[in-house]
Amino acid sequence: MSRKMLSECKTGRDLRNYVEHHPAAHDIRQRGSHVTVKGPRPGTAVIPDHGNEQLQRGTLGSVIRMLIGIGLGILLVIALTYGPLSAGF
């Protein structure tokens, strides 16, 4: 499977794959259907991974804000600026 851009991520599994390839992400762990990831800044981000079920827009926005808050945002901000999600944020 090829890596998707963040603007193409619609499911928790897509977001998880995106974060797993981020160079600053570490301590990625899973409990049940939720994946927890740490970045260079203090705090954690939780990504719901319910298979191929599409995330609702508000949940997707919340996860993206969490990822930006823990320092995984440089690639995210670029994707949001040029991707189809930019109108909603």
Q: Concise description?
A:
The chain is α+β, with helices and mostly antiparallel strands.
Structure characterization notes:
The protein has helices spanning 12-20, 57-69, 74-82; strands at residues 26-31, 34-38, 44-48. The chain has three helices and three strands. It is of the alpha+beta class and 89 residues long. It has a single domain (6-80), classed as Metal Transport, Frataxin, Chain A.
Major sheet: size, sense and barrel closure? 3 strands, antiparallel
- The chain-level mean pLDDT equals 78
Helix content: 25-40%
CATH superfamily: Hypothetical protein
The name CATH uses for the topology is Metal Transport, Frataxin, Chain A
Low-confidence regions? 85-89
Q: Assign an overall shape.
A: globular
Tell me the strand order in the biggest sheet.
1-2-3
How many structural domains can be distinguished in the coordinates? 1
- Determine the structural class based on helices, strands and strand pairing: alpha+beta
